[in-house]
Amino acid sequence: MHMLKEIDRPERAREWIQDKFEHRALVMGFGHRVYKRGDSRVPTMTRYMEKMAEITGGQKWVEIERILAEEMLNKKNIHPNLDFPAGPAYYMMGFEIPMFTPIFVASRITGWAAHVLEQMADNRLIRPLSVYNGVPERKVVPLAARG
To answer: What is the pTM for the complete model shown?
Structure first.
């Protein structure tokens, strides 16, 4: 979000990112260690970021993001990660930027705790690409179809 605020206007986005490319500077919100061809969570978060923009009048953030994502994909073949649409979504919800990391941590703490318990039980580190061998996925009946 700091980056988007620095850009401030969609008309400045292309020039801003071209300058980053020329100076080999890091552009936040792109790339992922595991999801090399795009993070499957990004379209959902982008949809909700766009809804927040409709509600709050934050359309300029959506347009800046569209331009940056297009340039990164075309010039560097690097896809946005989940932080890319999450930052402006949080910002438009009224969260202050220093709260973004605690929100991320709160959403992950249960999974991290589960990893610790699994690691302690097997005395083996678990890596993101490990194969899950627990209980199979259960099918959840949509609320509208429940009796």
So the answer is: 0.76
Summarize pLDDT for 84-97 with one digit per residue, the tens. Answer: 999 999 999 999 99
Domain boundaries, the chain: 2-95, 99-126
Rounded CA separation 78/69 (Å): 8
Catalytically annotated residue among 8, 19, 23, 32: 32
Give the separation between CA 10 and CA 131, rounded to whole angstroms: 42
User: For the domain with range 2-95, which CATH number is right: 1.10.246.130, 3.40.50.2000, 1.10.3210.10, 1.10.230.10?
Assistant: 1.10.230.10
| 32 counts as catalytic | yes
Q: Which residues pair with 80 in a beta bridge?
A: 30
Contact between 81 and 39 under an 8 Å Cβ cutoff? The reply is yes
Active site annotation includes 79: no
